[in-house]
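Lab notes, practical 5.
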Amino acid sequence: MERALWFLTGYTAVGKTALSLALAHFLDAEILSCDSVQVYRGADIGSAKIMPESMADIPHHGLNLCNPNETFDIGQYVSYAQSVANQVKNKNLLVVGGAGFYLKSFFTPVIDGIAIPECVRREAQLFYENFGLAALQRAIGRYGSVDLNVSDWHNPRRLVNILAKQRVTGLAQGQLKQKFLQNGCPFDHFSRKVMVLERHSESLDVRIRERVDEMFRLGLIEEVRNLGEMCPPLARAIGYREVKAYLDGGEKMDEAALKMAIVEATRHLVKKQRTWFRRQIPVDFHINLDAHSSKESFDFIAAFCRNNGIWT
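Output from the prediction step:
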């Protein structure tokens, strides 16, 4: 029988972690985290990372893979996830988390394999800083066909990366895209079943506020202080960037305002996630956890898994 990867995902603060433990027991599965912040050692509170004493003897993968000052990118995650999927052969593997780009890597190619020397990347960045967005767009267009949506065409970080790749390869962005789409996804030999957890907006908003309050109670400010120098992806993560700005700015913001800043940033992320889950990955099963009791929700999910052939 074809091996399956099971995915339990959904919006931030929806309740994935608690349900994942029960589902892993039901599936006889190990858990692979799909979270771009939980890979960093010491980034525990702000990422709502599960602690060893709460894992219920279920092996967890994808946590604490690097130091907070070391960048962990999507290419490293894909390689790591492949090794875990190949290693866990006698059990199911349950992928849990809501990091969009990490999640997408299980369904479509996300890495083009083009190595960009740091000097070329820096040169492209300086070109943008010196001449602006319009000049950056014109420079990209000189190579030939461009196939970008409006959002990407006005995203400087995206365009700087494209220009650097063009300077390395000599190819137009449209050509680079076509070559990229011809790459296979490394997980195509798995059957993949995606379950998305949802809640009503009002309920989710309450959970977000409670989650932020709990983070502060557990010591989020002290955690960020102890992390010291953070790599750019971690420093930009919700919770970490707001607390870092608070610590760097002294008394310009009180703790109540800091909490609200994190709540608002999380709300904005959830809005993006609602759109993302509709458009970016194939979803097999939705369930609104507010519409059923905890037992009913689990029973519905378990029935879906049974009906889709649990691999043993």
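Observations recorded by the TA: The beta strands are 4-10, 29-33, 60-61, 92-96, 191-198, 285-288. The chain has a mean pLDDT of 92.
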